[in-house]
UniProtKB/TrEMBL annotation:
SMART domains: REC, Trans_reg_C. It comes from the Bacteria. This is Response regulator transcription factor. The keyword rRNA-binding does not apply. Keywords: DNA-binding, Phosphoprotein, Transcription, Transcription regulation, Two-component regulatory system. Residues 125-220 bind DNA. Residues 4-118 form the Response regulatory domain. Residues 125-220 form the OmpR/PhoB-type domain. SUPFAM superfamilies: CheY-like. It comes from Sulfurospirillum tamanense. The modification 4-aspartylphosphate is found at D53.
């Protein structure tokens, strides 16, 4: 199942760019140029993420999200804005935003932020794109490099999935042990180091940081 994304953006060119990019990444993207159209669509369709511009012709993105939240809508929301002043950003969080990205932005950054919102909301994306080259086929538990399967054992895939889902954050050894070994099996520090090294061979030594005494962090 692919994530259903509502995009509220009145810049036609940017709206088309976002739609093309999101659909290329495997999302279902629906672009609207006014708050009224976006609100109407939200009543008819269940969306998994809202991407909202702030400055619009009929109402601000802030007002749009405020109305959604007052109606009980808890869909993760991110503002796409050129505003750089702290008060505007604080207003965004005050009306219920979960994140924001400032214009101009890299499309890959936007994708990572969307994936993070989906992860926190419990949505399971398939495939889960790691970068422009690699993606995880969550359904069949395999890693693809430019659509070709990479030879990894199941434990490598399980560890990679856990690290990618917490990209940029420390995944503790306790979390890894709980994820990779059942209660009836004895965890192995040596085996864990092998799995980590297997992933480093694919993504590079700098992709996975060993945080001494805590665990590992994926930064590819």
């Amino acid at each position: 199942m692919n994530a259903n994304v509502l995009v509220l953006e009145d810049d036609v060119l940017l709206g088309e760019t976002l739609q093309d990019f999101l659909e290329c990444c495997g999302y279902q993207a629906h672009v609207f140029d006014t708050g009224a159209k976006a609100l109407e669509a939200s009543y008819r369709t269940r969306f998994d993420v809202y991407l909202l511009d702030i400055n619009l012709s009929d109402m601000s993105g802030l007002e749009c999200l405020r109305l959604l939240r007052e109606g009980g809508d808890t869909t993760p929301a991110m503002f796409i804005t050129s505003a750089k002043d702290t008060p505007t950003l604080l207003k965004g969080y005050a009306v219920g935003a979960d994140d924001y990205v400032k214009k101009p932005f890299e499309l890959e950054e936007l994708q990572c932020r969307i994936d993070a919102l989906l992860l926190r909301s419990g949505f399971s994306r398939n495939p889960l794109f790691i970068n422009e080259t690699f993606c995880l086929d969550m359904r069949h538990k395999r890693l693809l490099k430019e659509r070709k399967e990479v030879d990894l054992n199941p434990k490598d895939i399980e560890l990679l999935t856990l690290l990618v889902q917490h990209r940029g954050k420390v995944v503790t050894k306790e979390m890894i042990i709980e994820h990779l070994w059942s209660a009836s099996k004895e965890p192995s520090e040596g085996a864990l180091r092998v799995y980590v090294n297997n992933l480093k061979k694919i993504f590079g030594k700098e992709a996975i940081t060993n945080v001494r005494g805590l665990g590992y962090r994926f930064e590819a």
